[in-house]
């Protein structure tokens, strides 16, 4: 008996690259859903989860999901747990730290989260000097400079492989603008520049096709909602948490983009808070713009294009705050 339908099937012989990914802070509100999403990513074949405790439990739970990714948990209370989680890893994602609570700004998080990120950066420099590092722990405007300074002091700093994950601002902008103009949010893209807190987040609405359709009030309200979307979540959760699920999605999306770049996929562009030349002459070492990702990390840092007068004003306010945030991160490392 002939089975003609079999002739229509094609089988790929290409084998994707295999990547080791480590999540530092895997048991938290962001860490667990982020780890789940990474377990489902077919590029991730070796997933390591690290936290102070319970990482083995989370890893065991995820290991029951039938994907090709092997997952292991490592905790602080075991011998060389952190070192083993980092050994020869390709990509490190750091969501470790405490979440925001009602009335708490990202700067309020600094004293606690700065110490956590500092110590994880030291371990990363020692045990995974060639890995790409994705920082989610807030306040990103300060924690990314902390990681950079630690890596510099340990002689392992590669600016092409250090990223502050600002993807949450991008996905919020896509969602919020689509609600106004009644479109599919997956088709909307808003250029986000600056930093990752409050007024340092600058949605460049003038570069969208809707700029002239929005009223001044709609623009003002939209910008404010994108800048302070985290407060909206904290308030809605009544003190029970912050933006964990949306941040996990954002972190997973950016991690996948970095892995796409590693694989050599063309035209992989995402916004990120990175070591940037755009305002170094003003003492601002890090700035968020679109970057093209490639096999060695960042291939190109994009300029942000033409701005309207009101956006230039937002940028000037952003730069003042950003400079202080970055300096705060540097000073923390020097004092520790």
From TrEMBL:
Domain of life: Eukaryota
Alphabetically ordered keywords of this record: NAD, Oxidoreductase, Tricarboxylic acid cycle
Binding site for NAD(+): 25-31, 51, 113, 136-138, 247
EC number in record: 1.1.1.37
Gene Ontology MF terms in the entry: L-malate dehydrogenase (NAD+) activity; mRNA binding
Active site: residue positions: 196 (proton acceptor)
One record GO biological process: malate metabolic process
UniProt cross-references to Gene3D superfamilies, sorted A to Z: Lactate dehydrogenase/glycoside hydrolase, family 4, C-terminal, NAD(P)-binding Rossmann-like Domain
Keyword NAD among UniProt keywords: yes
All residue ranges annotated as the Lactate/malate dehydrogenase C-terminal domain in the record: 166-333
Oxidoreductase listed as a keyword: yes
Residues given in the record as substrate binding sites: 100, 106, 138, 172
SUPFAM superfamilies hit by this protein: LDH C-terminal domain-like, NAD(P)-binding Rossmann-fold domains
InterPro entries the record matches: L-lactate/malate_DH, Lactate/malate_DH_C, Lactate/malate_DH_N, Lactate_DH/Glyco_Ohase_4_C, Malate_DH_AS, Malate_DH_type1, NAD(P)-bd_dom_sf
Reaction(s) the record says it catalyses: (S)-malate + NAD(+) = oxaloacetate + NADH + H(+)
Domain Lactate/malate dehydrogenase N-terminal: 20-164
One GO cellular component, as annotated: mitochondrial matrix
Assembly, per entry: Homodimer.
Family, per entry: Belongs to the LDH/MDH superfamily. MDH type 1 family.
Protein name: Malate dehydrogenase
Gene source species: Kazachstania africana (strain ATCC 22294 / BCRC 22015 / CBS 2517 / CECT 1963 / NBRC 1671 / NRRL Y-8276) (Yeast)
